[in-house]
Design goal:
It holds the Pfam family Glycos_transf_1. With about 400 residues, the chain is an alpha/beta fold. The chain is built from 14 helices and 13 strands.
Length: about 400
C-alpha cells in the first residue's frame, strides 16, 4: 500500500553516539530514502554538531551543561526540545516521534498544553531509577504517547503485560555496508591496541553493560591468553556512571590489570563515528554481556564486520539469535563469560558466517523498518486527527 509523503519530526536526546541516537539517524535516513520529509531534533550543548552527518534536516536545540546533575540535565533538555519544536512550528509536522524519555516528556508536555495533537514514542528499554522524578519522567514518556513502539518483542510484551500499553514491535536495522566496507583506521598508535587477541566491548563502563563482570571474565581468560587486551569503546551518556567506573578501576587494580595505552585494559571514551566499525574489524571477538538491552544493535554490527560475538543468553538476544550466529554466556557468571570468549577465539566460535549470519542480517534492514514505521504513522495520524482540545 502506498502512503502519501509526510512531514516527520524525529526527536532524540543527544548529538552523541548512543544506541538510541544511532537508531534515530538510521531511521531518518531510511525514511528520507523512502520519500518522506524528515527533520531530526536533538539537544546540543554549545552548538555541538550531530556526531554523524544525515541527509535529513537537523535542528539543534540549544541546551546547557549541568555536569553530573542528571535531573537538571534532563529538565534542561526537555525544555530545549519544546522550545525548538514551537519555534519550528509544531503544526507543520504530520508525525512527531520521540525516541527516548527526554523527548517523550517534551512532547507529552506540549500535548497537555494543547500545542500538539499527539505523538509516537519508541521504547528501547526501561531503566530502574532511584530518583522519583526520573522514574516519573520515564513513565510519562510512554504512558502519555498515543502510539508506542518497541524495538523487540521482549519489550513489546513487557509494555503490554506489565503496564497495559498496546505497543507494537518495529525492529532495528543494520547498515551492513558501513561495517563491511570501511577501511580499518590506524587506531593502534592512539590507544596502543596491541592485544593478541583483542576483546572489544562497546558502550563504555556501565552497570547495565555488565562491565565489571566482563572484567572478571577477562582476568580468567588471561590465564590462557596472557597477551589478551580488553578494549572498552565509547561511553557518551547523560547518566552518572562515575561510582560504577570507580569500582571498575579499583577491581582492575586488585586483579593486576593496568588501564591505559598499551595496557591490558584500554578505555577509549567517546570516539569519532568511523572508529567503531574500524575497531570491530580489528577485534578478535566482540563481547555483549549486557544485563538489559532494548535490542542490542552492536551484535548485528559486529557480525556485519565479520567479528565473532559472545552474547548474554537472555532476552531480547534469545529472541533473534541462536548458536549458529553467536557464542552464548551467562552474564552473571564470569567463568561462563570467559569460556564464551575462549570458544569465540577457537575457529571463530563455530559461527556460520557463510550462511546463518547473512540470513540473520538480511532479516534486519532499515528499509524494512522504515516501511513498517510509515504504515504505523498512517494509522497514528488517523487516530489523532481531531480538533485540538477535543
Amino acid at each position: 500500500m502506498n502512503h502519501p509523503r509526510m512531514r516527520i519530526a524525529l526527536f532524540t536526546h543527544s548529538v552523541n553516539p548512543r544506541g538510541g541516537v544511532v537508531h534515530t539517524l538510521e531511521l531518518g535516513r531510511a525514511l528520507h530514502e523512502a520519500g518522506q520529509d524528515v527533520t531530526i531534533f536533538a539537544p546540543s550543548v554549545g552548538g555541538a554538531p550531530m556526531f554523524r552527518a544525515s541527509p535529513c534536516r537537523v535542528v539543534l536545540a540549544p541546551a546547557t551543561a549541568h555536569g553530573n546533575d542528571t535531573v537538571t540535565t534532563v529538565q534542561t533538555r526537555i525544555d530545549a526540545l519544546k522550545a525548538a519544536l514551537l519555534k519550528e512550528g509544531a503544526a507543520a509536522f504530520d508525525v512527531l516521534h520521540a525516541q527516548d524519555g527526554i523527548s517523550g516528556n517534551a512532547l507529552a508536555e506540549l500535548r497537555e498544553a494543547g500545542k500538539i495533537r499527539g505523538f509516537v514514542r519508541t521504547v528501547h528499554h526501561l531503566d530502574a531509577f532511584d530518583d522519583s522524578r526520573l522514574s516519573a519522567w520515564q513513565r510519562r514518556a510512554y504512558a502519555d504517547a498515543d502510539t508506542v513502539l518497541c524495538v523487540s518483542d521482549t519489550w513489546t510484551r513487557k509494555l503490554r503485560g506489565e503496564f497495559g500499553i498496546a505497543a507494537s514491535t518495529v525492529n532495528n536495522g543494520v547498515d551492513i555496508e558501513r561495517f563491511r566496507s570501511v577501511e580499518a583506521a590506524d587506531l593502534g598508535n592512539g590507544f596502543g591496541l596491541n592485544g593478541e587477541p583483542m576483546v572489544l566491548a562497546v558502550g563504555g563502563i556501565e552497570q547495565r553493560k555488565n562491565t565489571l563482570q566482563l572484567l572478571e571474565a577477562f582476568a580468567l581468560m588471561r590465564q590462557t591468553h596472557a597477551k589478551a587486551q580488553l578494549v572498552i569503546a565509547g561511553g557518551a551518556s547523560l547518566l552518572d556512571h562515575e561510582a560504577y567506573t570507580q569500582r571498575f578501576v579499583a577491581r582492575a587494580m586488585q586483579l593486576g590489570l593496568r588501564i591505559g595505552k598499551c595496557e591490558p585494559v584500554v578505555v577509549t571514551g567517546p570516539l569519532e563515528d568511523a572508529a567503531i566499525p574500524a575497531l570491530m574489524q580489528r577485534a578478535d571477538v566482540v563481547s555483549m554481556m549486557s544485563l538489559r538491552e532494548g535490542f542490542g544493535l552492536v551484535v548485528l554490527e559486529a557480525l556485519a564486520a565479520g567479528a565473532p560475538v559472545v552474547v548474554s543468553q537472555i532476552e531480547p538476544f534469545t529472541g533473534y539469535l541462536d548458536e549458529r550466529v553467536c557464542c552464548w554466556a551467562q552474564p552473571d557468571d564470569a567463568a561462563s563469560i570467559a569460556d564464551g570468549l575462549r570458544r569465540a577465539l577457537h575457529d571463530r566460535g563455530g559461527i556460520d558466517f557463510e550462511h546463518a549470519v547473512p540470513e540473520l542480517l538480511a532479516r534486519f534492514s532499515w528499509r524494512e523498518s522504515a516501511r513498517r514505521h510509515i504504515a504505523l504513522y498512517a494509522d497514528h495520524r488517523q487516530c489523532i486527527m481531531r480538533p485540538l482540545g477535543a
